[in-house]
Write a structure and sequence with these properties.
By secondary structure, the chain is α+β, with helices and mostly antiparallel strands. It has one domain: Alpha-D-Glucose-1,6-Bisphosphate, Chain A, domain 4 (2-Layer Sandwich), CATH 3.30.530.20. The chain is built from 3 helices and 7 strands, in the order βααββββββα. Strands 1-7-6-5-4-3-2 form a 7-stranded antiparallel β-sheet, covered by helices on one side. A hairpin with a 4-residue loop joins strand 4 and strand 5. It is elongated and about 55 Å long. The relative contact order is 0.24.
Length: about 170
């Protein structure tokens, strides 16, 4: 399932980019993510050769339906989000890797891009696009829609956090 989310900020690109690059971003974002995210942890944050490599870990706080409990554990409702942001192009690529058995990795794929674009009058547009694919019969479409809805909520919370962090006073 393909998705795209765009936000416009009344903030210059360089100020918004400083917020994107901040090692404090996840800590400031976490309270805005809501009760469905139990834990968020920054495992890696390194800028080298004009690129930020970042790895965030998330643990969901969602009830597991009774029919799924024999197959799905709480630990399996966690994931790593890896991104590499290029300062020259003001863009990044990202991937999500769920914390599931290696044999099950082939059933889930999520990746995308993140782009900051300077607009007129000191404004900036952020465009996040991605693909989420769940290769599981019967529940695929419903599950993909649920996953994309959560991804969108998290990027909405991030946009709010970026506004807070980058607003010039």
């Amino acid at each position: 399932m393909r998705f795209e989310i765009a936000h416009e900020f009344d903030i210059p690109l360089d100020a918004l980019e400083l917020a994107v690059l901040s090692p404090e971003l996840l800590g400031r974002l976490r309270p805005k993510m809501g009760a469905t995210v139990e834990r968020a942890e920054q495992k890696e944050h390194a800028i080298e050769d004009g690129k930020l490599s970042r790895l965030w870990f998330f643990q969901a706080n969602i009830p597991i339906p009774s029919f799924a409990k024999p197959h799905v554990t709480k630990e399996m409702c966690a994931w790593d989000q890896r991104s590499t942001y290029d300062l020259k192009s003001h863009s990044s690529t990202w991937t999500i890797r769920p914390n599931i058995k290696p044999d099950w990795q082939k059933y889930f794929h999520a990746e995308g891009t993140y782009q900051l674009v300077a607009l007129d009058r000191g404004r900036t547009r952020r465009v996040v696009s991605g693909d989420v694919e769940l290769h599981v019969p019967v529940v695929r479409q419903v599950a993909e829609r649920m996953i994309v809805a959560e991804v969108k909520k998290n990027f909405e919370a991030e946009a709010e956090t970026l506004r807070d962090m980058a607003t010039l006073t």
